[in-house]
Write a structure and sequence with these properties.
Blueprint (H helix, E strand, L loop, with lengths): L5 E4 L9 E4 L10 H13 L3 E7 L8 H20 L4 E5 L2 H11 L4 E5 L4 H13 L4 E4 L7 H4 L7 H15 L6 H5 L11 H4 L3 H7 L19 H14 L19 H5 L5 H10 L5 H24 L11 H9 L11 H5 L6 H13 L4 H14 L3 H15 L6 H12 L20 H5 L4 H9 L18
Parallel strand pairs: 2-3, 2-5, 3-4, 5-6
Antiparallel strand pairs: 1-6
Amino acid sequence: MHPGRVWRHGDSRAVRGPVLYWMHREHRAHDNWALVHAIGEAKAAGAPLAVVWCLSPRFLDAAYRQFHFLLRGMRGTAETLREHGIPFFLLQGDPADEVPRFAATHGTGLVVTDFDVLRLKRAWLGQVREALACPLHEVDGRNVVPCRMASDKREYAARTLRPKIHRLLPEYLDPFPSLATEASGVAAWKAPVPDAMAAPDWDALLAAHPADRSVPALTGPDAPVPGEEGARRTLETFLTSRIHRYEKRNDPNADAVSGLSPYLHFGMMAAQRVVQRVTASTAGSADARASFIEELVVRRELADNFCLHTPDYDAVTCFPAWAQGTLDRHRDDPRPHLYDEAALEKARTADPLWNAGQTQLMRCGVIHGYMRMYWAKQLLLWTPTPEEAMRIAVRQNDRWALDGRDSNGYAGIAWSLGGVHDRPWGERPVQGTIRCMTYNGARGKFDVAAYIARMESLRGGGQARLPKSPCQRQ
């Protein structure tokens, strides 16, 4: 594994005691650089290894839908780890308390964990680091080029990060080792652990979890299948059935997108594996494959760069100075409509296209990428302040989307509402020089009426047996 992926906290003394991999972002057994590093450290020290994962009672605005998807996927990951002789232990509670407590109980010599840019995760990591009596290694398995290696500052736009990514990309596309080969020869774990940790009842955990059940789980034949196997099948289906249409990815009716965003968000598939698979494929055109990799690597990693270097990524204060200035100058402009969050959440606006996007978000757990931009931008026009527009956009996305609570979502909303990674455009009421997206502009790009009709078919319906076309995944 490339050493640039590892960020070492604490001293570098030799490991004396078990190695723990605290999994919290990369929820997979295969193609997991943090797990590979933990195995390597355990082998070098002749120490036992275990994976620990902590189920928190709440995480930002995640609801039952997201916990259902996550726990179903984690069941398979835990089984795969055990099949390869790697113990998996489930903790419950605040990770900042539970991970150090478990480490102290078992005399841990090293904790390895996932890199994450979100404030809550950075706070967890800081608290765990302070409480541990051993070193902590943070491994970036999310980004193909590790975030800290790509840039040490907030990048202005994709055009400033792109050359840095491409310069390092060949260096970091090293092949993933086989889990079976890597796990062979690790010292056995012998310390006793309670049955509830060592053999969790996943159904009981989900049934007892206090998540908000007003956001239902996605079920039925077209719902995304949680876990690593579901991610692999989705990638192969994209390569065999949809990548040839990828040039039409901004058309919500074209069924051209990958469907991988929930799996990438939950770490059920490595972006690097997707890059390697797409690069090796002859499916679709060369331009389609290159465009997909641009979105997957440069644009996605730009979002991590933004959130790492901008802790207020979900507030108006994260907007560039020109954007804050133009929005301030237009604060008192009359709005064409004013809606409260309850009306917006129920898709009760005068704009049928916006209502369709909100319906897709609520019923399908995703919103098409073009529509997510349109959806967010209209909120500036319909709320009394940019701060309220930002709050509602973040909460609705984090509450309903499987891939919410993610650097991609926060960066995308900041682009839509506040010109992050963008530039000033022509001045308009309310929005100032923030780039606008209009209903008539959408009509020039795709069949708006068809999209609205497809989403209308979902209104008032349940989650079971949703037809595939309305819930086409992003």
